[in-house]
Fold each of these.
Amino acid sequence: MNLVVLLLTKDATLSTPLLSAVSPPSTTTTSDSDESSSSADNSFRYDYHDLNFNTPPPPRPPPLPAAVFCSSYKSLAVLSGHVSSVSCLALCGEFILSASQGKDIIVWQQPDLRQFTKFGHGDGSVKSVVTAGNKVFTAHQDSRIRAWKVSRSSENVFKLIDTLPTKKDYLGKFMKQSNYVQTRRHHKLLWIEHADSISCLAVSNGLIYSGSWDKTLKVWRISDFKCLESIKAHDDAINGLAAINGIVYSASADGRIKAWGRRKTTDGGGDNKITHSLKGILQGHKDISINSVVVNQNGSLVYGGASDGYIMGWAADEGFESWKLVCEAKAHATAVLCVCLVGEFVCSGSADKSICVWRRDLIGGGLVRYMVVKGHEGPVKCLQASPERVGGGFMLYSGSLDKSIRVWWIPNHSKFHIWMSYWGWI
Ligand SMILES: *[C@@H]1O[C@H](CO)[C@@H](O)[C@H](O)[C@H]1NC(C)=O
Ligand SMILES: *[C@@H]1O[C@H](CO)[C@@H](O)[C@H](O)[C@H]1NC(C)=O
C-alpha cells in the first residue's frame, strides 16, 4: 500500500491544479478502511525521486489488494445554489452548466467557479443538458426540448430560441391522421411528440437524439429543429444516450444497450432522408436497468452503468457490426447512476454516494480501479470530466441528490502502468 500511496501523495503535491480561487487538492492518503488489509503493509518504501526504470527492478513485492487504488480524497470546491437535486451537468467553453429537479439551470464560470447566471426557470424539471457549438439543448419533464443560444454580445447570455417539437413541425403534421400514434387508451399524440419525460439527450453530426421514458428514441435536425424520426427503441424507459461517428447507443431499463446506425437514403422525390436502423444489442444483466452509457472517442469502446452496481464494457469490431463484452466490473455497492469517460479513465457515480475512477487497461477494454472519491451526502446523479489537462491530471465535476456540485482534481500518474505491469497486474 505504501508505495502507491507515496506516488499519489508526491504527484498530488508536485502538481497543484491551475485553479486560482480554490485550495489545492488534499493529500490525504487514508485508504478505504473496509477493504484495506494489513498485509498490504510491506517493506517496499521507495522515494519517488529514487525511481529509476533503467536499473534492474527490485524483487517482486507481494500482490497488493485492489483497495490500494482507493484513497479518500477531498473535493476542491462544493458549489451550492440549486434548491433541489442536481440532475445533469454539461461543459460549455469556460462554463459549467448544471440543472436540477428544481427547474433552474445555473451557469458557473471557470476558473473561479462563481455563479455567473441562471436561466430556464419554470419549464419543468430539467433531466438533461447537452451543448453543441454555441447552442445548448435542455430536456424537460414536460416532454419537450428547449434550444438556447449562447451569445456573448447580448445581456441575456443564454437566450431561448425554440422549443422542440417546433410550432412549424406541429403545423405541418397535425392535419394528417397518419401522423398520430396511440400512446394510451383514448390518447393520441403526433409521432414527433414524446409521451413521457425526456431522460437524456445526445448530439452528433448535426443531429440531436432524445431518449424518453416513453421508450422511444427521436432524432432531430439541429439546422431547423425538425423531428426526422421516432424509433420505438426499447421495451422499457430509455435512461441514457451516447452518440459518435453515426452510431447512437441507447441504454434502457430493459437491461440492454442498443446500437443504432445512421443511414442516408433517398426517398421517391429525390430528397435525402436520414434513417437509423438497429445494428446490435449489447446485453447487460437480465432485467437490470442500465442507467447510463458512454462511448470513447473513436467509438470502439462502450461502457454502461447498471442498477446492480456493475459497469459493463463492450468493444466494437472494426466495421461496427458486432460488439463483444470486454468488461464486467462490480463497481459499487448499489446502482451506478452515471458514467463519464476521459481519455483512458472511466468514472462512475453511484447511489452509494461515491465516485469511482477506473483506468482502462492497455489492451482491451477491461477496467482497473484507480481511486474512489467520496464527499457527497447523497447519490451521485451526474458526472462530467474536462478533457483539458490540468496540472498533471484532469478535472471531474459531480452533481448529486444532495443538491450540490463538487469539483475534483484527479491526478494522472503516467508511471502507474509501468509499476502495474512490473507487478504483473496488467
Ligand atoms: C480506438 O481506440 C482504442 C483505444 O482508445 C484503440 O485501441 C483502437 O485501436 C482505436 N481504434 C481505431 C479504429 O482507431
Ligand atoms: C494521462 O497521462 C498519459 C501519459 O502522460 C497521457 O497519455 C494521457 O493522455 C493522460 N490522460 C488524461 C486523461 O489526461
Amino acid sequence: MSGKGKGKRGAGRRKPQPQPQPQPQVVSEIVERLKGEYPEARCSLEHVDPYQLLVATILSAQCTDERVNLVTPALFRRYPDAESLAEGRPEEVEELIRSTGFFRNKTKSLLGMAGAVVERHGGRVPETMEELTSLPGVGRKTANVVLGNAFHQSVGVVVDTHVRRLSQRLDLTASDDPEVIEQDLMKVVPQEDWTDVSHLLIYHGRAVCKAQKPRCGDCVLSDLCPSAFAV
Ligand code: SF4
C-alpha cells in the first residue's frame, strides 16, 4: 500500500459506530409493560437452596432449563449438598447428567466447584461475585443467576441468548458481547430491576420475540421497538 491519501479527512479510519442512547423513561416503560405481561416471570431452574441453583446453572450451559429440571431431582437425591458432591465419582455424576450435553466438562466443573465450596467456604455457597467467580466452572453469568435468585442481590444482569437478542432489537445495546451488553443494561435499567429484567426478557423472547419469527403484531412493545416489523 502506498499510503497515498494518508492524512486526508476520514481516510483509513473506521467510521465510529453509533451508540444507542435509550431514554430512561422508555426503558422503564418496557420493564413495566413486561411485568404486566409476565407477572409470574422468575428463574425457571428448579431449586430449593443456593447449592441446587449453582449446580443447575452450571448444567444449563448449552442446554434448556426444562432438560436441566428433568435431570436435577435424581442428582440432588444422590448428592444433596456440596460435601456429598465433592466426594462423587466422576463416572456416576456423568451418567446422571449425560442428557444435558457436554457432560464430561460439566462433571469436572461440578466436582471442582463442590470441592472448592467445601475447602474454602465450609460447604456453604459464597455470597459475593468475587468468591463465586473464583470457583471452578463458575463465570459471571452463573454467579449473577445465583446472587440474584438465591441471595436476592442485584449485582448484575444475566445475559443469555434471549436477553442478548432482545436487547439488540430494542436498541438497548449495540454489542454482541454478553459482558458489554450486561454493562449497557446496567446503565439504563434501575438496579432493583436487574434480576427481573433478565427473566422478563427471557419470557418475552420465548413467547413473542422469537429468534426466527418475532410476533411483532402481538407484541406489547411494538410502539417502542425500533425493530418492530423489520426483523
Ligand atoms: S416489536 Fe417485534 S422485534 Fe420488537 S420486541 Fe416486539 S416482537 Fe421483538
